Structure formats: structure tokens, C-alpha cells
Amino acid sequence: MRQFGLIGKTLTHSFSKTYFSKKFEQEGIADCSYQNFELPQIQDIDSLLSQYPDLKGFNITIPYKEEILPFLFQQNEIVQAVGACNCVKVIDGKFYGFNTDVIGFRDSLQPQLKPHHTKALILGWGGAAKAVAYTLTSLGIDYLVVSRKKAEKTITYSDIDKALLEQYTLIINTTPLGMYPNINDAPQIPYNLLSSKHFLFDLIYNPTQTKFLQLGAQQGSQTANGYDMLIGQAEESWRIWNTL
Fold it and tell me: Which residue stretches, if any, does this entry annotate as coiled coil (predicted)?
């Protein structure tokens, strides 16, 4: 039995186990199983192989997409460029790192872009945000990061004003704000300044319509959640585990 799974700190919100279990059942894949591995700290990953000798690959979620890097035997070029890994293939007990968030995000975002979506605001700067930034650069979309602390190419939430939003019409939430069960949370941006020109993309998929997306829709903005991105990254993980 080939074993796969998801690594994170708290996995009650996990999409992956449900998705892969259903995939295995529907496609008649009887020799594979997928389960959640909640790790209090990333160092606990060392014990996984001894507990699960048939582990062939795993996905990684908050907060370990960056913390996993020192444990990787090899990183592909996207992981090296992004500085975050969300997919590992296990070969002879060694961890090979990949980033499938980039492909999942690109394939779900690109078909929905309008010609005026040439500049983006990235809310948050975790592992997923770095994959978003890499993708935007590859698509020729300039971006600014919005965080609590100002830095190079990074502004704070209080810096977002009407003039800025006239230019930056694509807004991507990579923070966990609004994720179930905290469904009333939302990034603190001036929603009243949004319009039908704006496109709000939320990497969160549960709930399907976060407060961030609701407040944007009320202003007539285009919205999308992270469900299609998750499917895309999951299928790319499966391809990596089985073909590379």
C-alpha cells in the first residue's frame, strides 16, 4: 500500500485528504491511501518515515511550506526561486521538494484576468504568497505586498488608498483571515473604494464565499476563491508522485 498525506500544524480544514480519498475511490486506485499528519513542530518530520515506511509523498500546508526547506535533499527550480515547498516526493528515504501552488494558482487565475489587471496587491507574505508572487511575475503582472510591516516592495494596510486602488485592480488574499471557523474575519482594506474594475482572488476555499469576497462583491467586484487552485495543485502533486 503506497502511503501519501498532508503535513501541517492544524488540519481540521484540510481539503487534501477528502479530495484524494474520493479520487482513489472513483478511479479504482486500490493500492494507495492518504491521511493527515499533524506535526506540533517541523522537526517531527524525521519520525514520519520510521512510522510510515511506505510513505511515497506528501503535501505541506500552513505553517511549514518554508520550514520544510532544510529537510529537503533536493529542491526543484521553482522551490529555489519561490523559497517555499508544498509537495514532497520521497525517494529512498530522501525528500525531493516541489511547488505545485504555482501551477494551481496560474491555471485558475489566468483565464479570469481582464486586460486592465496589470498590477496586483498580495495580502500577506507566507509560503503561498511567494508562489503567488512568482506566478504574477511570470505573467508580467507587477505587484506590491501588503503586510503589517513596511519593507522593500511591501506596504502596510494603512497605505492602501483610492489612488493606489486605481492602479492595483487585482487583489489576492493569501492570509488565513476568513478561513473556517473564523468566517467573519477579513483583511483590513478599504472595501468602499472597490469597483467593478477590481478582481478579488482568495486562496481560501472554506467557506466558498469569504468575508473578503463578500465585501468585494457588494462593490461589484469580480471574485474567485481558491477551490480550483487546490484541485490544480493536487493533480500536479499526483503527477509528480507518479511520473517524476
Answer: none
Residues 213 and 183 sit within 8 Å (Cβ to Cβ):
no
> Spelled out in words, what is the top-level CATH class assigned to the domain 103-228?
alpha beta
For Cα atoms 222, 226, 231, give the angle at the middle one, nearest 5 degrees: 130
Question: Sheet of 74-75: strands edge to edge?
Answer: 32-38, 2-8, 55-60, 87-91, 94-98, 74-75
CATH of 2-99, one of 2.60.40.1120, 3.40.50.300, 3.30.200.20, 3.40.50.10860: 3.40.50.10860
* pLDDT over 90 (residue 180): no
The secondary structure element, H or E, covering residue 59 is strand 55-60
Q: Helix 101-109 and helix 227-243: axis angle, to 10°?
A: 140
Q: Which residues are catalytic?
A: 65
User: Per residue, what are the HEC states of 138-176?
Assistant: HCCCEEEEEECCCECCEEEHHHCCHHHHHHCCEEEECCC
Q: What pLDDT digit, counting tens, does each position of 38-71 carry?
A: 999 999 998 898 899 999 999 998 889 999 999 9
Tell me the DSSP string of 193-212: G--TT-EEEES--SSSS-HH
> Residue ranges of the domains in the chain?
2-99, 103-228
Residue 145, C-beta contacts closer than 8 angstroms, at least 6 positions apart: 121, 122, 124, 125, 129, 133, 151, 153, 154, 155
